[in-house]
Design goal:
The chain has 363 residues and is of the alpha+beta class. The protein is built from six helices and nine strands. The longest helix has 82 residues.
């Protein structure tokens, strides 16, 4: 990799010669501007406003524009005379825990390479010291005509440096948070936690730029004369008020399905998410009237049932009376029959006794 800056790391009284190498690269696809009429390329030329003539790079210098529009020329010699101790040095000023660095300050990233054999020993010493301390080094350095802030940390066996924005370059997030108090229920938090657990971790190396790949396919198709079919645009759902609980449940189910973890809950179908509809005053009133009329109908039906029951009750009472009268008449008949039998039996025995007594007398 080609170095973009040569200098040294100042580590107390230790100086470590290093080379600065870009740690990142931009894969964005760049387009040119063309004239639609004939396809000719549109170029920007540097023209002086006073004589309207094109100016070459060697004739262009720097100037600071004052508030009234006055141009104040600044030469490279003027800048070179300024006291800049970090002009060719990455000066470490402190060692701090990594969590003290606000990620908002992160800027460009570089690799620091040991410049020459003598630099290997102090380079390795600083690298191992950073590893063992679990800290990062905060440093100042100068690049492209200005002093910058940086953070040194260990990546594998290499010291990497992240350019940092100065603290006063970070804007306060005023007016960004939602207005008013928003209450989040425990059930919603539980579903959010479940969604986070279901999504789990990801292999960062597997992530890629889908849009860039689509642009490359588009360019290849147009270059070969193929017809490009427009892709369907998905509904982003912006501005819709949705049922948050249902949306979270759907998200959990979709995440499980994508990871092959459908589970045994239900048949795997997801509930539909519908916008929350506000009920108007008129519809509420009509619903209330409908409920009242239904209640009145129920009361009338109950009253009619009670009346019907009370009317049928005397018939059953009369049947009971008739049954008891029949039983009493049967009992009386049975008693009379028994009395007659007793009378007839007693009469016969008396006659037999009288006849026997008569026989004894005559004898």
């Amino acid at each position: 990799m080609r170095s973009i800056w040569n200098g040294a790391i100042s580590f107390g009284l230790v100086s470590i010669p290093i080379k600065l190498v870009n740690a990142t690269e931009n894969h964005s696809i760049h387009f040119r501007q063309i004239h639609l009429a004939d396809g000719g390329r549109i170029r920007y030329r540097k023209v002086c406003e006073l004589d309207e003539e094109e100016v070459q790079g060697g004739e262009i210098g720097k100037a600071y524009e004052d508030a009234d529009g006055t141009m104040i020329p600044i030469t490279d010699e003027d800048l070179a005379q300024l006291p800049l101790p970090t002009a060719k040095t990455i000066e470490i000023v402190a060692f701090v825990p990594a969590d003290q660095i606000d990620p908002l300050q992160m800027d460009a990233a570089y690799y620091l390479s040991a410049n020459g054999v003598p630099a290997a020993k102090p380079y390795t010493l600083l690298r191992e010291a950073l590893k063992r301390s679990n800290k990062v080094a905060v440093a100042k350095y100068a690049l492209r005509g200005r002093e910058r802030l940086g953070m040194l940390r260990v990546v594998d066996d290499v010291i990497a440096m992240h350019g940092l924005l100065w603290p006063d370059e970070i804007r306060a997030p005023e007016g960004v948070a939602p207005d008013g108090d928003v209450t989040v229920r425990d059930a919603e938090l539980d579903l959010a936690d479940a969604l986070m657990d279901t999504l789990g971790e990801v292999d960062m190396d597997s992530l890629h730029d889908d849009y860039r790949e689509a642009v490359e396919e588009l360019i290849a198709a147009k270059a070969s004369g193929e017809t490009v079919r427009p892709a369907g645009s998905g509904d982003t759902g912006g501005g819709k008020v949705i049922d948050l609980i249902a949306a979270l449940e759907n998200s959990v189910q979709a995440a499980k399905k994508s990871r092959g973890e459908a589970g045994d809950e239900g048949d795997g179908e997801m509930a539909d998410v519908h916008p929350i509809k506000k009920t108007s005053g008129k519809s509420s009133a009509s619903a209330s009237a409908s409920r009242k009329s239904s209640a009145q109908t129920t009361k009338k039906s109950s009253a009619a049932a009670k009346k019907s029951t009370s009317r049928s009750t005397p018939k059953s009472t009369g049947a009971k009376k008739s049954t008891s009268t029949t039983k009493k008449a049967t009992a009386k008949k049975t008693t009379k029959t028994a009395a007659k039998k007793q009378t007839s039996s007693s009469g016969g025995s008396g006659a037999k006794k009288t006849a026997s007594s008569r026989k004894r007398t005559s004898a």
